[in-house]
Amino acid sequence: MRPSLTPRRRCDPEILDRVDIPPSLRERSHRDIAVANAVFGGTRALLGALGDCTPHLPRRASFLDIGTGTGEATLLATRFCAARGIDLQSIALDLDPGLAARARGCANHAVCASALQLPFADASVDVVACHQVAHHFEGDALVAFVREMHRVARHRVIISDLRRSWVAAAGIWTASFPLRFHPVSRHDGVLSVLRGFTVAELRALVYESCGAHALVCRRAGFRLTASWAPPRLA
Known about the structure:
Blueprint: H1 23-40, H2 42-53, E1 60-66, H3 72-82, E2 87-94, H4 97-102, E3 109-112, E4 125-131, H5 139-152, E5 153-162, H6 166-175, H7 183-194, H8 199-210, E6 215-219, E7 223-228
Parallel strand pairs: 1-2, 1-4, 2-3, 4-5
Antiparallel strand pairs: 5-7, 6-7
């Protein structure tokens, strides 16, 4: 029986996933997303998983942030690694041309491309990460997304996403008012939580997609991270 505080996973499309969203609204909502990640622990979850693997990285390492949005997490990852003696060469990737251009100021390189067809060779990037992106995919596309991350990574793959919960959904709805989120951000924020994962679901997704046994951790703020080393280095 499902725990009472864990709703059934939703698959409704989010408003920002539509192709006809005005660029100004998309950028405004992504600014709200950056605030939510800073306040509710999304960024800390990503950095926590990155910190777990930094002892095993070369002193000069490459980092791919898929679905980077406006690029704040990419920049914070670079600073986080610099404080640990790692020169992180960052690549910010987004499907939206406007967001990819906006993220150029936060990364060494910015790329406009699909997460389902990453324009990189096998094992060509030291750390491949996504931050609040996996829940946007469903079914075969979700499996293909994880496989692409796994294919490109040389040292580590990191998926940082939301842990599905009624409490988290109610929390983001309530907090969106004092934080002055746009109504689209409020709608999509709640739906994002309801499209999130449980520990078991995220672990099973990684194994079914690429045969890897991921370390899945609960993080503060109803966040989850899954991380694993490609088999060639495991």
